Automatic annotation (TrEMBL), chain A:
It comes from the Bacteria. Keywords: Membrane, Transmembrane, Transmembrane helix. The keyword Transmembrane applies. InterPro entries: Spore_Ger, UPF0353/GerABKA_families. It comes from Paenibacillus glycinis. Belongs to the GerABKA family. The chain crosses the membrane at residues 289-310, 386-408, 415-438. PANTHER family: LEUCINE ZIPPER PROTEIN 4, SPORE GERMINATION PROTEIN. The keyword Transmembrane applies. This is Spore germination protein.
From TrEMBL, chain B:
This is Ger(X)C family spore germination protein. Belongs to the GerABKC lipoprotein family. It comes from the Bacteria. InterPro entries: GerAC_N (IPR057336), Spore_GerAC-like (IPR008844), Spore_GerAC-like_C (IPR046953), Spore_GerAC_C_sf (IPR038501). The lineage of its organism: Bacteria, Bacillati, Bacillota, Bacilli, Bacillales. It comes from Paenibacillus glycinis. The keyword Signal applies. Its main location: membrane. Residues 23-186 form the Spore germination protein N-terminal domain. It is a lipid-anchor.
């Protein structure tokens, strides 16, 4: 990569020419030339017309500047001073910096005789209004969700944490996209070593174009080949505020409404922020329910296959009699039945997700009718299998984290294969392997499964059970001494 | 990355192995054996194995309520042979794990119960929690009798076994319990008795699970009437009397009072008087008054106490009569006094061991004491009287 910098020439005309050359065929670059009373070019403003607010530019900025230049005896220093007073104050010492400012919705002003350009951020592109997040819906609690604009998102967080202890660090990631990334943390709460590790990994990101936080997530997480996400993402500012207070670090990416929260542990993905807004009895009831649905969505089809093809003695007799009558005349083995139904369910889910909402709903209804009723009526699939697949699907929808729900749905397939091969023994071994894998994962030096942390019992319990607010300790997600060692060796 | 590749390769390999397992039994390929009858043909010296089973093909997916039973018999020189010969007649894989009921024909029970129990307890397909009941007559004939309720005969029979604790005059043991008692040469045991009979106002014979069959030294030794079975219910293991609820009609003054009894506590102890063993049986019962045919003022504490004492004496009398029959007529220790002597008085047992069955058990004194308490008499006006 060519790291040579092009200096800014004292001649405005030359600078404009350089920029014209650099932005040849760009299509949206615009220049405004300021002339002196004598008609000589004294300054030039360069900007990308689709990024800046041109109306404001021509009403509020250009006229006073033009007037200054036309005034008698205007010396460069005083003009520059006046321009700075208008708010044009981001300096660019070379052409590369000026180019970065221009592409970042800035107006960059080159003044004759000055080897430094001045920029001002004047964004004029469209922004989405702050809406309720689509995926993290809650019955009670704040409705605001992040949008694609970094500054707005920062504002949403700063409004919730009115303290000077809220610190941020800025990064630019992506050689071409030059995406702004901000790292937010609460001083005193965040673990300094975890913070340092995140900073180190962020600095090491090598990407050309960053359009979403997911790319950064994949780049910086500890085990990129694990199916489990080790960094949480959220669209809810209230969730970020709570997480910052727990000592986590938030990573905001410009252009992405998803804010990353690290380090994350497995239980974080099972508890939506709404838990905090409900009575703790109800919240814990829901948490218990979600643990059940976690196992149901992961194991139900495989357990059904294992029981009905290997361990018939484990099924209670009345249930066995029902299975016996419903399985009569079904041509497919249970394993194939399950596989077909699961695939059909995933296809339906994907189809209804990709279609516009109104059509999507009708697709899922028609699909459910076809799969559920027609398949049973024609004797291709047995009734219990339809119930099993439907229950599994619905159970996976109760997992609040979309990533985790997908992971569970995906892991269900190898489990189906293993169950069809070795029965309950295979399921037990797979579960053992899964627990081993989860226990071996770390998120920035913090064990992914919280039970392994040698902490006070209340902290450990706090990861699973929501205690009444008076007894709720700030269960901080911090690296334990033994897990930290991993950080230092990295 | 290489780990990931290896893992992916392993996953693909697993996919190919699906269906390779020889242990797979699809539900549509099996027939559930719900009831098994074992008979012994003395003339041919053959075992006859009869099963009642349900299979998927006899049902259709549209009508899951319809369950047809298939009954088939096969014979063989040994039980295993007979059981295997049966497979030649079955179009499906026979699955015994859901069979809760094993009916042993009278002939098989009298001649070779030992082989039957040995087969049942060795076979890993058969659950030891299944019930073993002896039939009066040929078991396969009884099994072919249609159920009274129209339900599966197996469901009906298992339901009757569960109801035993609500009347007490029948007692069915599981294969596990039978196998436990089996090795003990000093005692016998009682399990269920299945017979056929014409019910009141019935038009065909139906099955009755009532009374008991006495097994001693690996053979059927005789039958017991219902009230003797009730005595066994009260005296043997806690698991049989814990949930027991039985009706008892007590003559009181000139009235007849029916009480629903529950066992509160029970103890059987052995003591030695002048070197001779004496057994004390103490039973505490709680009664609820259910019917009275004449007015009795039970609200009066003295009358109530009198009733309690009368009920106690009456049940004592019944129990003593039953124990006398066990000791003097049957001469088989069906309640397990020998176990108590062996467990709690090992020294004395060593002396008694050899003559226990022949000399000691038939004459050993047994003191029975029954305490009845009636904690509530109810609120009905009829009970109060004048």
């Amino acid at each position: 990569m060519d790291n040579r910098k092009t200096p800014i020439a004292p001649s405005v005309v030359r600078n404009v020419e350089t920029l014209r050359r650099r932005f040849a065929d760009h299509g949206s670059i615009s220049f405004h030339l300021f002339e002196s009373r004598a008609g000589e070019p004294v300054a030039a403003a360069a900007y990308v017309n689709v990024l800046v607010d041109e109306k404001r530019l021509y009403r509020q900025l250009i006229p006073p500047i033009a007037e200054r230049f036309r005034a008698d005896g205007a010396d460069i220093e005083s003009v520059a001073e006046a321009v700075r007073a208008l708010g044009i104050e981001q300096p660019a010492s070379d052409m590369e910096e000026a180019e970065r400012l221009i592409t970042d919705a800035c107006i960059v002003l080159f003044i004759e005789g000055m080897t430094e350009a001045l920029g001002m951020n004047l964004p004029g592109y469209g922004r989405r209004a702050i809406e309720e997040p689509m995926l993290e819906v809650s019955v009670r609690g704040p409705r605001a969700g992040f949008i694609e604009d970094l500054n707005t998102n920062m504002g949403l967080i700063y409004r919730r944490l009115k303290t000077s202890k809220l610190k941020s660090k800025s990064y630019v990631v992506g050689n071409e996209s030059r995406t702004d990334v901000k790292l937010l943390y609460l001083e005193d709460q965040a673990d300094v070593r975890v913070l340092r590790e995140i900073e180190r990994r962020l600095a090491a990101v090598r990407l050309n174009v960053v359009v979403d936080s997911a790319q950064i997530e994949e780049w910086i997480q500890d085990s990129p080949y694990s199916p489990f996400s080790q960094i949480q993402n959220t669209e809810r500012p209230d969730r970020v505020a709570t997480a910052l207070n727990q000592g986590k670090v938030a990573i905001l990416t410009d252009g992405s409404p998803n804010v990353l929260l690290a380090p994350a542990i497995f239980t974080d993905f099972l508890h939506p922020s709404e838990d905090l807004y409900e009575k703790f009895y109800f919240a814990n009831f829901l948490r218990g329910l979600r643990v059940i649905t976690l196992f149901v969505s992961l194991f139900l089809p495989s357990v059904y296959i294992a029981l009905t093809t290997f361990h018939l003695e484990m099924i209670p007799t009345p249930l066995m009699l029902t299975f016996l009558s419903t399985k009569a005349g079904i041509p497919l083995p249970t394993f194939l039945e399950a596989l077909l139904m699961e695939i059909a369910f995933e296809v339906l889910r994907e189809a209804s997700l990709r279609l516009p909402q109104a059509i999507g709903q009708s697709v899922s209804i028609v699909g459910a009718l076809i799969i559920g009723e027609a398949a049973v009526q024609s004797g291709i699939v047995s009734r219990p299998m339809v119930i099993v697949v439907a229950l599994t699907g619905i159970a996976s929808f109760t997992i609040p984290s979309f990533n985790t729900a997908i992971t569970l749905r995906m892991l269900r397939f190898p489990l189906i294969f293993v169950a069809a091969w070795t029965g309950v023994l295979g399921i037990a071994l797979s579960m053992f392997a899964l627990v081993l894998h989860l226990c071996s994962l770390k998120s920035f030096g913090v064990y992914y499964m919280p039970t392994l942390e040698p902490k006070r019992w209340r902290d450990v319990v706090g990861h699973y059970v929501l205690l009444p607010i008076r007894h709720r300790s700030l269960s901080k997600t911090e690296a334990s001494p033994e897990s930290r060692e991993g950080l230092e060796h990295e | 990355m290489s780990r990931f590749r290896r893992f992916a390769a392993l996953g693909l390999l697993t996919c190919m192995l699906v269906g390779c397992s020889p242990d797979i039994r699809e539900i549509s390929d099996i027939a559930l054996v719900m009831l098994t009858a074992i008979d012994y043909d003395e003339q041919k010296r053959d075992y006859v194995f009869t099963i009642n089973c349900i299979d998927a093909s006899t049902n259709d997916a549209q009508n899951s309520a319809k369950k047809l039973e298939w009954i088939a018999s096969a014979s063989g020189k040994t039980i295993l042979e007979a059981a295997r010969n049966l497979r030649s007649r079955a179009g499906k894989i026979l699955v015994w794990q859901h069979d809760k009921f094993f009916l042993i024909g009278e002939g098989a029970a009298r001649n070779s119960l030992y082989e039957v129990v040995d087969f049942l307890s060795r076979n890993r397909d058969i659950r030891l929690s299944g019930y073993l009941v002896v039939s009066q007559g040929t078991a396969s004939d009884l099994m072919r009798i249609k159920s009274e309720t129209g339900d599966l005969i197996s469901n009906e029979t298992v339901g009757r076994i569960k109801n035993e604790q609500l009347w007490g005059k029948s007692l069915s043991l599981t294969i596990k319990d039978v196998a436990d008692y089996y090795g003990n040469p000093y005692r016998g045991f009682v399990t269920g008795k299945l017979s056929r009979s014409m019910p009141v106002a019935g038009d065909r014979e139906v099955l009755f699970l009532s009374g008991g069959s006495v097994i001693h030294q690996g053979k059927l030794a005789g039958w017991l009437p219902g009230k003797d079975v009730l005595a066994i219910h009260l005296i043997i293991k806690k698991k049989y009397w814990r949930e027991l609820e039985f009706p008892q009609t007590v003559p009181f003054r000139s009235a007849k009072i029916s009480l629903l009894m529950r066992v509160a506590n029970r103890s059987v102890r052995m003591r030695q008087t002048d070197g001779q063993p004496v057994f004390d049986v103490r039973i505490g019962l709680t009664g609820t008054v259910l019917t009275i045919d004449k007015q009795v003022n039970l609200a009066n504490p003295d009358t109530l106490r009198e009733l309690e004492l009368a009920a106690g004496r009456f049940i004592e009398g019944e129990l003593k009569a039953s124990l006398n029959r066990f000791q003097q007529q049957l001469k088989i220790d069906v309640v397990g006094f020998s176990d108590i002597a062996r467990k709690y008085h090992p020294q004395a047992w060593k002396r008694m061991e050899k003559t226990w069955s022949t000399a000691i058990y038939p004459t050993v004194p047994v003191r029975v004491h029954v305490d009845v308490s009636i904690p509530a008499i109810g609120m009905s006006k009829v009970l109060g009287g004048d």
